[in-house]
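Researcher: Quick test of sequence recovery. Tokens follow.
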């Protein structure tokens, strides 16, 4: 490989046949002992407390999966997984709480812009209910440092888990 992208020296073939399946196996193993999403909404729990509970010293790059009734619901990635999970569950706006926004929109799309929809009281209630639904989920994570591996893995895991109801890559 003459010009690696984002320091990824591996070929796509190696990523697809070796690396991504290895990450997936690690994620599935971590799904055997997920943590409750409710920890994020617990009073007095911030990122430092959550990291401590998870045995981590700092936030990390990786993939996360929301699990509802033992079934994967949504796969996401971030260079700061813990911070991103806090956004999903505590954000009051459509920019940071994108998963809850998308869930609410699938229930009832008022047809406005994101900003207009969030000002709509009925839609705002759906958004808040979506965050409460997420709070009832559990979450598993896997650390992935390389940006190329991380982005490819999000699609790979979403397809393997069949989370197409909520995962979309139209805006990525």
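Model:
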């Amino acid at each position: 490989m003459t010009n690696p992208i984002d320091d990824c020296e591996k070929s796509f073939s190696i990523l697809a046949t070796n690396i991504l399946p290895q990450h997936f196996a690690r994620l599935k193993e971590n799904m055997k002992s997920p943590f409750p999403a409710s920890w994020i909404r617990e009073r007095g729990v911030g990122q430092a407390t959550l990291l401590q509970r998870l045995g981590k010293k700092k936030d990390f790059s990786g993939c996360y999966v929301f699990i509802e009734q033992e079934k994967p619901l949504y796969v996401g990635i971030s260079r700061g997984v813990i911070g991103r999970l806090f956004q999903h569950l505590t954000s009051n706006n459509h920019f940071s709480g994108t998963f809850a926004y998308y869930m609410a929109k699938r229930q009832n799309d008022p047809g406005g812009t994101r900003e207009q929809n969030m000002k709509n009281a009925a839609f705002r209630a759906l958004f808040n209910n979506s965050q409460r639904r997420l709070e009832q989920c559990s979450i598993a994570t896997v650390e992935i440092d390389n940006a190329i591996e991380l982005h490819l893995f999000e699609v790979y895991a979403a397809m393997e888990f069949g989370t197409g109801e909520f995962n979309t890559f139209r805006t990525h």
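The chain is about 50% helix and 15% strand.
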